[in-house]
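notes to self, project folder thing:

trying the whole complex as one job this time. last attempt i did each chain seperately and stitching them together was a nightmare. two parts in total, labels are on each line so i dont mix them up again. if this works i'll redo the older ones the same way
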Amino acid sequence: MLDVESVVKSFDGFKAVDGANLRVDAGEIVAVIGPNGAGKTTLFHLLTGHLSPDSGRILFKGKEIGGLPPHVICRRGITRSFQVANIFPRLSVFENVQIAVLSRERKTFRIFSPVAGMAKEEVDRILRSVGLFDRRDVESDLLSHGEKKVLEIAVALGGNPELLILDEPTAGMAPEETERCIRLIRKLSEESGLTILFCEHDIALVFEIANRIMVMVRGVTVVQGSGEEVRRNSEVQSAYLGESGEC
Amino acid sequence: MVTTRRSAAPLLLLLLPAALLALPQVLPRFHIYVAEIVLLTALLATSLNLAIGYTGLYQFGHAVFYGIGAYGTALTLTRSGMPAPVAFLAGPLAAAALSLLIGLICIRLSKLYFGMLQISLGSLVWAVVYRWYSFTGGDDGIHGIPLPDAIGSPKGSYYFTLAVTALCVFAMYRIVRSPFGKVIQGIRDNPVRAAAIGVDVRLHQLAVLVIAGFFGGVAGSLFVVVENSVFPDMMFWTFSLEVLIMCLLGGMYTFFGPFVGASAIVLLRVFASVHTRYWSLLLGTILALVIIFLPDGVLGVFVRRPRKREAPDA
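result (full assembly):
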């Protein structure tokens, strides 16, 4: 579904991503891991059009998407959440998801029809599935940090994506929130067959839910494979897992 | 929460029209005139708020579209011999067209840079109008503009102004409650996120600018009806700031805030300036107090209250 081939992105001579390779097949949960500054977020920005690659290819369903603007990539079927909770703070929880749905349905230029009840069923269904339904009329700025991160996922789901990209979905969450978030990711994958690509610092979590793992160090893809393959790779052990001492 | 949030609006919506309809029957000529100025200025401020309060665009040159709306109507009436309805469409359409043009140039810049470039381009338009004596009348403006009899009398012009203002405010009210209106609020809150859900941010911003310019132009056309004249100062940048202050004063995150702010400032200018030349000192004091104690504006307080009540269980 997604094929990234030797993608390079540098900022003022610093190569943040220096030959990243990634393959995501339909229905998979794929994780990208790597130490801080390895280029994970930059890679995600390249996939969603927030940055343009200097070279290399990014193919989604066989078509090049590298360098396209974010709203075009979204319409091709990739939506995302951000590392820092990135929501519409003055809109209610319901409205946050609603405008994502309306945008997908290309209704954003309807200027006279009342918006109030539009897409209600779908938005309520999404809010129920992520567990935010009882907060639907709250101004989203008032949510807790963990709830905002979940709302972000809900907004991304409003675009009814084929590929959902989550940039550190559990960053800053309390343990029980993290637990709930993992269950949510797994549920989304199992129930709707959603393809999910995410990056995460919590290694235990990654090995728990990812079908495949890609390891990045200093902008380069070191290895991509199953949890077992990654664990056995000596380069990974020295460069990353050894350091963190977790596995 | 929904009921408290809306509690102030329906009451106003019932009392206000009755009072506005009865007003010219009981008030003297001068006060009818003041009411007209309040109405059209409120329309102007509400149109500006579409850009600034609802979309987060730093529209610092809004008076230019007001001025072009007025000149468009005035010039069509005095120079073209076209029927009046055409003139009243020509003004707003010219304002919308100019807004599109200036918008296309400014939209690539963000925030303050957008606003500053808009002021510069607006000043350019002002300078042309101010100097082009043979066409615009230069700094003299245009006076004694012929109007159809129906709207030439004080009451006629009042009811015309009232009807057009009400229609336009209603249209804008519908717009901010449409899918488009919600999406522009999303763009205001977080343009990056808006793009990531598939929204073409610039296209929507441009559409807002054109709509705001159009309704600003309508306010300008009404000015022709009320004053029978136009002059370049109405599009000078200081007036743009005054309209901006109206939005801040009334509350730019509420729909009727700018309406309240415009009414307050116009009334203050008219009635305080009778007693003192330094009425702007009074305005400055009030504004400072509002900014310190009511940062969301006068109406913002009423809307914000439910938000605070919601906070403890958040």
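what i see at first glance: The CA atoms of residues 79 and 164 of chain A lie 5 Å apart.
need to look closer tmrw
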